[in-house]
Amino acid sequence: MIQFMKKIFGSSKAKEKKEKVLYITAHPNNQDTSYSLAVGAEFIESYLQSHPSDEVVHLDLYNAIIPDIDSDVFNGWRKLADGVDLTHAEKAKVERLNELVEQFIAADKYVFVNPTWNFSYPPVLKAYIDAICVAGKTFKYVPDKGPVGLLDLKKAVHIQASGSLLSPGSEMESFEMGHRHLDVIMKFLGVPNFEAIFVEGMGAASDQTQVIKDKAIRKARELAKTF
């Protein structure tokens, strides 16, 4: 009977859509010394255990080419619109930025991982955000409505570590600029599901660092199962 039903309806696994997860890390160190990367690694491990057919692509921003939006880029975009040849530098930067946004669009889910530096994230993550916010690709302008995000079928999670307590509800919540900005960007791009894991307080309670880390890992592993 089971075999007969499989022939008619197909197996449940055959019906499952293979999804792509873009694992975006912005930390110069490795998971042995980074709280955010350690928790991120546990998240991905748990995710793959629960979603074995899915694909995880790791984009390590500290070991990738992430062009700044500079004069070469602006000149390159203008020349493309005018049908003029680009210089080598302009062409290389414009093509790389296009690769980054196309990779972002192709993913179904996003995992952002970073430390907190001076209440925000490392500069390379801001450069990456600039690369993926592209009119006509990840958002569009609608007359009488303004910008509308185009990634309404995606979901994302943000894993952020900080020495201070900065998560919503903490006394220093208003100082936190990294997750809040990324939350705005996800809303801007239309991502409807954006969750957060805060690994925080290691500086304020140095004797509790392992407890804090273990708690975040448990949350990460549980969230990954349903992500």
TrEMBL record:
<comment type="similarity">
    <text>Belongs to the azoreductase type 1 family.</text>
</comment>
<dbReference type="Pfam" id="PF02525">
    <property type="entry name" value="Flavodoxin_2"/>
</dbReference>
<feature type="binding site">
    <location>
        <begin position="34"/>
        <end position="36"/>
    </location>
    <ligand>
        <name>FMN</name>
    </ligand>
</feature>
<dbReference type="InterPro" id="IPR023048">
    <property type="entry name" value="NADH:quinone_OxRdtase_FMN_depd"/>
</dbReference>
<comment type="function">
    <text>Also exhibits azoreductase activity. Catalyzes the reductive cleavage of the azo bond in aromatic azo compounds to the corresponding amines.</text>
</comment>
<keyword id="KW-0288">FMN</keyword>
<comment type="function">
    <text>Quinone reductase that provides resistance to thiol-specific stress caused by electrophilic quinones.</text>
</comment>
<protein>
    <recommendedName>
        <fullName>FMN dependent NADH:quinone oxidoreductase</fullName>
        <ecNumber>1.6.5.-</ecNumber>
        <ecNumber>1.7.1.17</ecNumber>
    </recommendedName>
</protein>
<keyword id="KW-0285">Flavoprotein</keyword>
<dbReference type="InterPro" id="IPR029039">
    <property type="entry name" value="Flavoprotein-like_sf"/>
</dbReference>
<dbReference type="InterPro" id="IPR003680">
    <property type="entry name" value="Flavodoxin_fold"/>
</dbReference>
<dbReference type="InterPro" id="IPR050104">
    <property type="entry name" value="FMN-dep_NADH:Q_OxRdtase_AzoR1"/>
</dbReference>
<keyword id="KW-0520">NAD</keyword>
<keyword id="KW-0560">Oxidoreductase</keyword>
<comment type="subunit">
    <text>Homodimer.</text>
</comment>
<feature type="domain" description="Flavodoxin-like fold">
    <location>
        <begin position="20"/>
        <end position="221"/>
    </location>
</feature>
